[in-house]
Automatic annotation (TrEMBL):
Residue span(s) of domain LysR substrate-binding: 19-192
SUPFAM superfamilies: Periplasmic binding protein-like II
GO terms for cellular component: protein-DNA complex
Protein name: LysR-family transcription regulator
Region (Disordered): 203-249
Organism of derivation: Hoyosella subflava (strain DSM 45089 / JCM 17490 / NBRC 109087 / DQS3-9A1) (Amycolicicoccus subflavus)
GO molecular function, one term: DNA binding
Similarity annotation: Belongs to the LysR transcriptional regulatory family.
One matching Pfam family: LysR_substrate
Keywords, comma-separated and alphabetical: Activator, DNA-binding, Transcription, Transcription regulation
């Protein structure tokens, strides 16, 4: 269970929550934000088991039953890149096609979230052994064995001068979104709504955000205007007082 005095945001490898964490600290000063990395294979379980309040996740091309328990907002897409050892003939071009990989030994990680069926299946010659994660697949390529296709952000996590990255032309893209338990509504959970708003680009002073709601509550009510009696009515001249008649007249 997450601590109600904190907000826990999970994120998969390659996702970069730093800028959103900065905005959170500026807008929600009384509730600390805790960042915790979760693997792609564990992203749904982390939410269902309430280990995190929300998570930046990689969206699968076909969602399993566990995704029915979650609310998801897509955020952005990432291009696929081919990771090859330096000196490989694929380094010669600026990009690689699926046809270029036809005879290559390709490491296909278990956490792969690309919709390969859109391009006729996984390119190349998939190996019998499937690495558990995309990062492990990149590590195998670093040994000089085979190639792999991973999201750009995951490939950039490996600062290995012996590896070369090339975009996969017309390849399927990796989709990243923010997810949370569907039973938690952004209409009633102010902290969850604030986080979703931050990653979607909502402005700090939005009427829906915490700061906007606080400002509206603190705004003084307009003072009642005192009405001047008779204002707006035409003035009548004062009645002339009758003088008493003198005797003998």
């Amino acid at each position: 269970m997450t601590d109600p005095k904190e907000f826990w945001l999970g994120y998969v490898p390659g996702a970069t929550p730093a800028k959103w964490a900065q905005r959170w600290s500026e807008r929600v000063t009384d509730v600390p934000l805790q960042l915790v990395q979760v693997s792609v294979s564990d992203q749904c379980a982390a939410l269902v088991q309430r280990r995190v309040d929300a998570a930046l996740v990689r969206l699968p091309p076909q969602r399993a039953e566990e995704w029915d328990l979650l609310s998801v907002v897509p955020l952005y897409d990432e291009m696929p890149v081919v990771v090859v050892p330096r000196g490989h003939f694929l380094c010669a071009g600026e990009e690689v096609t699926c046809a270029d990989l036809a005879d290559e030994a390709v490491w296909h990680p278990l956490d792969d979230m690309f919709a390969w069926e859109c391009v006729g299946g996984v390119p190349g010659v998939p190996q019998l052994h499937r690495p558990a994660t995309s990062s492990e697949a990149v590590d195998l390529v670093a040994t000089g064995t085979g190639v792999t296709v991973v999201p750009m952000s995951v490939a950039r996590l490996h600062h290995d001068p012996e590896l070369v990255l090339r975009p996969l032309a017309a390849g399927p893209r990796s989709h990243v979104g923010i997810a949370w338990l569907a039973e938690r509504s952004t209409d009633t959970d102010a902290l969850l709504d604030e986080m979703v708003g931050i990653v979607k680009g909502r402005r700090a002073n939005s009427s829906r955000g915490l700061r906007g709601q606080t400002s509206a509550m603190q705004k003084p009510a307009p003072k009642p205007t005192a009405k001047t009696p008779g204002r707006g009515k035409s003035r009548q001249p004062p009645a002339r007082r009758k003088q008493p008649r003198k005797p003998g007249r």
